[in-house]
């Protein structure tokens, strides 16, 4: 690697008490020519990555959780620099797709051996209830309906961490959630009915270990679509344990497909998350397209 920049979220995973000195010393000793940049506000990682995105033969390392990874990826989309990941968050779903170990020392050793590869990126355009339109990118997952509600609730929670935080949020909201009617259009299909959730995965895992889209690959030119009908509570409770291992795809009322583009209308408005961050609370229309090989990554 000709050049390397570490973009560090010092409070990722709620670990503000971790010794920053040890982390920076380790990085400095293993990569003496690298720069280390600490973030202090949301959006800063994306801005720092974008400033380095056109550097050829350069690696920008996201040191943090999935939120930090998503910000760095957004800053590098379409650029020359590659992204690597050191997982310090509570979920680390994208790092898992890259095969990066959760153990700190092993992750650093793998980084030193990593080689460049390509990664697809999802692009989503959202029309909000107030008429505003916004555009976003995601590298791991996009979720509408119940999944977005859980992501939002987990992000606000101050108890538990990672997978357990998402599981607690799911169990809390499950008995009271009402599935909105959505119209999905992709390929030759037009589906208009209440949807419990709609998940689009470039990666397999979301929420720190829920394998919502178990057939997803980062570089195959497809987004994996998983959607669930508005099912009774007892059915949802029997399906939930299967999601941890991806076996929910065999359940009645759960549907899977592959898409490169999809349009979704939700007249009553629905919540949406991209890589775990809520990007809409009352989206009326969503257009998702895949950008093949739009991001360079180190694997």
CATH topology of the largest domain: Tumour Suppressor Smad4
User: Would you report the number of β strands?
Assistant: 13
Helix content: 25-40%
Low-confidence stretches: none
From the spread of the alpha carbons, the general shape counts as globular
Q: What is the CATH C-level name of the largest domain?
A: Mainly Beta
Which whole number gives the mean pLDDT?
94
Radius of gyration: 19 Å
CATH architecture label of the largest domain: Sandwich
Major sheet characteristics: 13 strands, mixed
Residue share in β-strands: 35-45%
The number of distinct structural domains comes to 2
Distance between the termini: 13 Å
Class by SSE composition: alpha+beta
The H-and-E topology, N to C, reads as EHEHEHEHHEEEHHEEEHEEE
- The number of helices is 8
Structure description:
The mean pLDDT is 94. With 299 residues, the chain is α+β, with helices and mostly antiparallel strands. The protein has helices at 20-30, 44-51, 66-76, 93-98, 104-113, 146-156, 162-173, 233-243; strands at 3-8, 35-38, 58-64, 82-87, 116-128, 133-138, 141-145, 181-186, 189-201, 223-229, 254-259, 261-274, 277-298. The chain folds into two domains: 3-114, Probable inorganic polyphosphate/atp-NAD kinase, domain 1 (Rossmann fold); 121-293, Tumour Suppressor Smad4 (Sandwich). Strands 1, 2, 3, 4, 5, 6, 7, 8, 9, 10, 11, 12 and 13 form a 13-stranded mixed sheet that branches. It is built from eight helices and 13 strands. The longest helix is centred in the middle third of the chain and has 12 residues, at 162-173. The protein starts with a strand and ends with a strand.
């Amino acid at each position: 690697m000709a050049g390397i920049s570490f973009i560090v979220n010092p409070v990722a995973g709620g670990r503000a008490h971790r010794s920053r000195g040890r982390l920076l010393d380790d990085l400095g000793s293993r990569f003496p020519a690298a720069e280390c940049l600490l973030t202090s506000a949301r959006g800063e990682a994306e801005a720092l990555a974008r400033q380095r995105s056109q550097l050829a033969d350069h690696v920008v390392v996201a040191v943090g959780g999935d939120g930090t990874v998503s910000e760095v990826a957004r800053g590098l989309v379409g650029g020359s620099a590659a992204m690597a990941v050191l997982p310090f968050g509570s979920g680390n779903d994208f790092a898992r797709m890259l095969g990066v170990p959760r153990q700190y020392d092993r992750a650093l050793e793998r980084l030193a051996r990593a080689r460049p590869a390509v990664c697809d990126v999802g692009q989503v355009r959202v029309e909000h209830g107030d008429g505003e339109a916004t555009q976003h990118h995601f590298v791991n997952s996009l979720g509408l309906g119940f999944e977005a509600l859980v992501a939002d609730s987990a992000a606000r929670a101050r108890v538990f961490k990672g997978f357990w935080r998402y599981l607690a949020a799911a169990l809390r909201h499950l008995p009271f959630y009402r599935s909105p009617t959505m119209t999905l259009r992709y390929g030759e299909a037009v589906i208009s009915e209440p949807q419990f959730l709609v998940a689009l995965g470039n990666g397999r895992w979301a929420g720190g270990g829920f394998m919502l889209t178990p057939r997803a690959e980062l570089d195959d030119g497809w987004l994996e679509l998983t959607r669930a009908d508005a099912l009774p509570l007892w059915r949802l409770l029997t399906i939930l344990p299967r999601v941890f291992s991806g076996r929910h795809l065999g359940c009645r009322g759960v549907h899977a497909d592959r898409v490169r583009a999809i349009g979704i209308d939700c007249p009553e408005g629905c919540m949406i998350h991209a890589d775990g961050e809520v990007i809409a609370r009352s989206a009326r229309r969503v257009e998702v397209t895949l950008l093949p090989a739009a991001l360079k990554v180190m694997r």
